[in-house]
Amino acid sequence: MTAAAFRNERTNFRVDSGDPTIPEQQLDGSSRVDGVALGATGAIGTKWSLFANYTYLDSELLQNIDDVLIGAGQVDFRAGDPLPFTPEHSASLWATYRASEALTVGFGTTYQGEYTFNRANATADLYYTPDYWVYRAMLGYAINDNLALQINVDNLTDEQYFERVRSNPTNGWATPGAARSAVVSVTWRL
Question: pTM of this prediction?
Answer without folding.
Answer: 0.84
